[in-house]
Amino acid sequence: MLKNKTIVVGVTGGIAAYKACDVVSRLRKLGAGVHVIMTQSACEFVAPLTLQTLSNNFVIRDMFQDPKTWEVEHIELAKAADLFLIVPATANFIGKIASGIADDMLTTTVMATRAKCIIAPAMNTNMYSNPIVQDNIDKLRGLGYGFIEPASGLLACGDTGKGKLADVDTIIESVEEYFEDINRDLEGIRIIVTAGPTIEAIDPVRYITNRSSGKMGYSIASQAVKRGARVTLVSGKTNLNRPKGLEKLIEIESANDLYKAMMSEFDKNDVIIQSAAVADYKPKSYSDKKIKKSDEDLLIRLDRNKDVAKELGKIKKHQVLVGFAAETNDLLDNASAKIKKKNLDFIVANDLTISGAGFGTDTNIVKLIDSKGDIQELPKCMKTEVADHILDKVKSILETR
C-alpha cells in the first residue's frame, strides 16, 4: 500500500523522539520513500545520522545548511510529499503551525505543502489538557490537519495521564488508513482466506499440529480489507490480533473443521486464498482420557485427512483458487504438481530451508506459479508486501474473466 509513496516525517524535540526511528524503519519496510526533517531540539534527543541511516535519505535540520541538491529544499519536499507525519509533535510545534509561524525548516515545509499532514502529539499531561493547546489542536483539525490521539500512562516526567506518544503500531495503521481510500481496487470482491495451523487431537492433552504462526494468512486478510475486499478469515489457533474490518472470522481447530467451514462459505466468495497449514493426517482413534505413560513405546495410527484444496478444486465455478506450497525440497516440481492436482489458478511456493522464509517470520521469499507455468519470483520482503503481490495477481485474473 505504501509502495511509491513519499512520506515526510517531521521530528520535534521531545523525549519520544526516539520512537520516530521505529516509525521511519517501519514505513521503509512497507515500501514508502521516507524523508526526515528534524528541529534543532529533536537533534538533542536523537542523532540525525540514525534517522539518515534508517530513511536512506539525508536528514534536513537547518534552514541554512549547505543544500544536498540545487533546489529549494523545503519547496521540493513540500511538492513531492504524499503525506506529512509529525512524530512526536510538541506543544510548541502545534502552537506555531496553528499561528502560521514558519521559523525553521519543518514549519516552513509544512506551510508550503498541499499534502495531508498528520500530527502525533506527545507532551506532559497538563500541557496536553491546557486550553491553549486544545484550542490550537481544534483549529488545526478544522483546517484539515489529522491527529493521532496520545495514549494515557506513566510519562517520562513521572506524571500519569494522557500525553504519551501513541503506540508505533497505531501510528503506522493511521498512515495506512489514510492511503486506503486511494487504493481500494478490490472494492466489493468477496475473498475467503485460510490461516494458521490445524490441530488433530490425540487425547484431551495432546495433539498433532505444525509450526504455522498464521502471519502470512493474516497479512493477506488485512491487506485485502484495506484494498476494499469483503473478507472472511478462517483461522486455526494463533497468537495474532484479529485484522480490522473483517466481514467474518471463523475459528477452527481440525482439518475437518476447516473442510466444513470452506464448503459452507465457498459459493459466497469470488476468491479463495488457502494459506493455512493443514494437517495431512489425523489419529485414527481419539482417547477421551489422557493416555498414560508406560514403559512401552506408543504407537499412534494415522488416517488421511480430506485434501481441502483438492475438494474445492472439484467444485470450482467462477472462483479464483490460490494455493500454498511450503516445501523443503524440489520446490518447483512439487508446487507445479499441486496446481494441476488441485485445479488452482496459481500457487504461492516457498522453500522452508531458506532463512527469512516460511513459518513464524515477518518476511517471506516466494514464487508465484500460475497454471500456465509462468513464474514470478519475489525477493525477500515483508509478508504484507507478499500479500499485496498475491492480491495483485488475483486482481489481474479477475479482470480477464
From TrEMBL:
<dbReference type="GO" id="GO:0015941">
    <property type="term" value="P:pantothenate catabolic process"/>
</dbReference>
<feature type="active site" description="Proton donor">
    <location>
        <position position="157"/>
    </location>
</feature>
<comment type="similarity">
    <text>In the N-terminal section; belongs to the HFCD (homo-oligomeric flavin containing Cys decarboxylase) superfamily.</text>
</comment>
<comment type="pathway">
    <text>Cofactor biosynthesis; coenzyme A biosynthesis; CoA from (R)-pantothenate: step 3/5.</text>
</comment>
<feature type="domain" description="Flavoprotein">
    <location>
        <begin position="5"/>
        <end position="176"/>
    </location>
</feature>
<dbReference type="InterPro" id="IPR035929">
    <property type="entry name" value="CoaB-like_sf"/>
</dbReference>
<keyword id="KW-0511">Multifunctional enzyme</keyword>
<feature type="region of interest" description="Phosphopantothenate--cysteine ligase">
    <location>
        <begin position="191"/>
        <end position="401"/>
    </location>
</feature>
<keyword id="KW-0436">Ligase</keyword>
<keyword id="KW-0479">Metal-binding</keyword>
<comment type="function">
    <text>Catalyzes two sequential steps in the biosynthesis of coenzyme A. In the first step cysteine is conjugated to 4'-phosphopantothenate to form 4-phosphopantothenoylcysteine. In the second step the latter compound is decarboxylated to form 4'-phosphopantotheine.</text>
</comment>
<feature type="binding site">
    <location>
        <position position="324"/>
    </location>
    <ligand>
        <name>CTP</name>
    </ligand>
</feature>
<keyword id="KW-0285">Flavoprotein</keyword>
<dbReference type="Pfam" id="PF04127">
    <property type="entry name" value="DFP"/>
</dbReference>
<comment type="pathway">
    <text>Cofactor biosynthesis; coenzyme A biosynthesis; CoA from (R)-pantothenate: step 2/5.</text>
</comment>
<dbReference type="InterPro" id="IPR007085">
    <property type="entry name" value="DNA/pantothenate-metab_flavo_C"/>
</dbReference>
<feature type="domain" description="DNA/pantothenate metabolism flavoprotein C-terminal">
    <location>
        <begin position="186"/>
        <end position="396"/>
    </location>
</feature>
<dbReference type="InterPro" id="IPR036551">
    <property type="entry name" value="Flavin_trans-like"/>
</dbReference>
<protein>
    <recommendedName>
        <fullName>Coenzyme A biosynthesis bifunctional protein CoaBC</fullName>
        <ecNumber>4.1.1.36</ecNumber>
        <ecNumber>6.3.2.5</ecNumber>
    </recommendedName>
</protein>
<feature type="binding site">
    <location>
        <position position="280"/>
    </location>
    <ligand>
        <name>CTP</name>
    </ligand>
</feature>
<dbReference type="GO" id="GO:0071513">
    <property type="term" value="C:phosphopantothenoylcysteine decarboxylase complex"/>
</dbReference>
<dbReference type="InterPro" id="IPR005252">
    <property type="entry name" value="CoaBC"/>
</dbReference>
<dbReference type="GO" id="GO:0010181">
    <property type="term" value="F:FMN binding"/>
</dbReference>
<dbReference type="Pfam" id="PF02441">
    <property type="entry name" value="Flavoprotein"/>
</dbReference>
<keyword id="KW-0456">Lyase</keyword>
<feature type="binding site">
    <location>
        <position position="338"/>
    </location>
    <ligand>
        <name>CTP</name>
    </ligand>
</feature>
<dbReference type="GO" id="GO:0004632">
    <property type="term" value="F:phosphopantothenate--cysteine ligase activity"/>
</dbReference>
<dbReference type="InterPro" id="IPR003382">
    <property type="entry name" value="Flavoprotein"/>
</dbReference>
<keyword id="KW-0460">Magnesium</keyword>
<dbReference type="GO" id="GO:0015937">
    <property type="term" value="P:coenzyme A biosynthetic process"/>
</dbReference>
<comment type="function">
    <text>Catalyzes two steps in the biosynthesis of coenzyme A. In the first step cysteine is conjugated to 4'-phosphopantothenate to form 4-phosphopantothenoylcysteine, in the latter compound is decarboxylated to form 4'-phosphopantotheine.</text>
</comment>
<keyword id="KW-0210">Decarboxylase</keyword>
<feature type="binding site">
    <location>
        <position position="290"/>
    </location>
    <ligand>
        <name>CTP</name>
    </ligand>
</feature>
<dbReference type="GO" id="GO:0004633">
    <property type="term" value="F:phosphopantothenoylcysteine decarboxylase activity"/>
</dbReference>
<dbReference type="GO" id="GO:0046872">
    <property type="term" value="F:metal ion binding"/>
</dbReference>
<keyword id="KW-0288">FMN</keyword>
<comment type="similarity">
    <text>In the C-terminal section; belongs to the PPC synthetase family.</text>
</comment>
<feature type="binding site">
    <location>
        <position position="342"/>
    </location>
    <ligand>
        <name>CTP</name>
    </ligand>
</feature>
<feature type="region of interest" description="Phosphopantothenoylcysteine decarboxylase">
    <location>
        <begin position="1"/>
        <end position="190"/>
    </location>
</feature>
